[in-house]
Amino acid sequence: MKTIRFTDGTTVPALGQGTWMMAEDPAHRSDEIAALREGLSLGLNLIDTAEMYADGESERLVGEAIAGVRDDVFLVSKAYPQNASRDRLQDACEASLDRLGTDRLDLYLLHWRGRVPLTETVEAMKRLVASGKILRWGVSNLDTEDMEELVASGGEGCQTDQILYNLTRRGPEYDLIPWLAQHRMPVMAYSPVEQGRLVAHPDLAGMAKERDITPAQLALAWLLARDGVLPIPKAGSIAHVRDNRAALDITLSEAELRRFDTLFPPPRGPEPLAML
Ligand code: NAP
Fold first, then answer.
1. Which residues line ligand 1 (CB under 6 A)?
2. Which of 90, 124, 172, 248 has a CA 20 to 30 Å removed from the CA of 264?
């Protein structure tokens, strides 16, 4: 299985599992837990969650899904910007750990930039690493200038920037993704199938049909074909998890990659980082 290397040398499978919108509806809970467990059994051991998702209930659901297999999971959660301060980050992290039923996170992210100075967030993250509550840290939704500032604020230990990146959101290719590559930080690509909208895209559907695969698989295969990119699709059913896992086995031809560039053109100049 293709793997992705974080800045500190740790490797994880190149395809992870997202959890936004999970635990919103009790009627879907058992399917969502079954989907995450299926993903783990298929080797998709990175699970991404956040204190924000379902107001903490997504973390609780993940905790239930990984009970008994915690050590096999690479667990990622995120802190609200207002909690990413010297005074509040430790409490936010401990509350996440409690909901997740674990004593450590493998990766803890600043969800997006707020009013707390980055120097403070970096300091608070480093303290959590020192105490063993998190093994590494990173950020999300930070554009190139913010990343420059982060590194200048003592944040060289940042492991990743989790950003909106998919076939219809190629803006970061112009400057942010090259910057991250230069700093050996992989990209965690969120909303890799554009929250499901790409599945219905007629051009993508046409290309997928020619190969007898699904549009979701094709959208993921395109991301997986790129260096240092780790897509984290959210799948609420076993069928979707299996579908997504199979994207790791798809190889795209040069001709297909050129066709993607025609149908979903790369950026021609800088674009502000979009977020959902
Ligand atoms: P996404 O993964 O692009 O799309 C999820 C949607 O696609 C769901 O409706 C899902 O349906 C559907 N889907 C998944 N696999 C499919 C398949 N094989 N065939 C057909 N439909 C499929 O969007 P996302 O949830 O926004 O992003 C993924 C993860 O990234 C999130 O869950 C979260 O962990 C993270 N995220 C982070 C941020 C951030 O600010 N850092 C923002 C957004 C998302 P079912 O549920 O029915 O399977």
1. 18-20, 48, 111, 140-141, 162, 190-196, 199, 214, 216, 232-237, 240, 243-244, 275-276
2. 248
Find the 188 Cα to ligand 1 centroid distance in Å.
13
Provide long-range contacts, Cβ within 8 A and 24+ apart, for 200-205. Answer: 201/167, 201/168, 203/263, 204/167, 204/263
Ligand 1 atom closest to residue 32's alpha carbon, by position in its atom list: 46
The amino acid that residue 148 corresponds to is E
Q: Phi and psi at residue 120, in whole multiples of 5°? A: -70, -45
Q: What residues are paired with 17 via a beta bridge?
A: 47
Q: Report how far residue 91's alpha carbon sits from residue 253's, in angstroms, rounded to the nearest whole number.
A: 49
Cα of 86 to ligand 1 centre, how many Å?
32
- Give the number of the atom of ligand 1 that is nearest the alpha carbon of residue 233: 2
Look up the pTM and report it.
Answer: 0.98
Going by C-alpha positions, the residue among 188, 190, 169, 198 that lies closest to residue 233 is 190
Torsion of CA 95, 105, 32, 142, to 10 degrees: 90
Q: How many CA atoms, within 13 angstroms, populate the side-chain half-sphere of residue 208?
A: 20
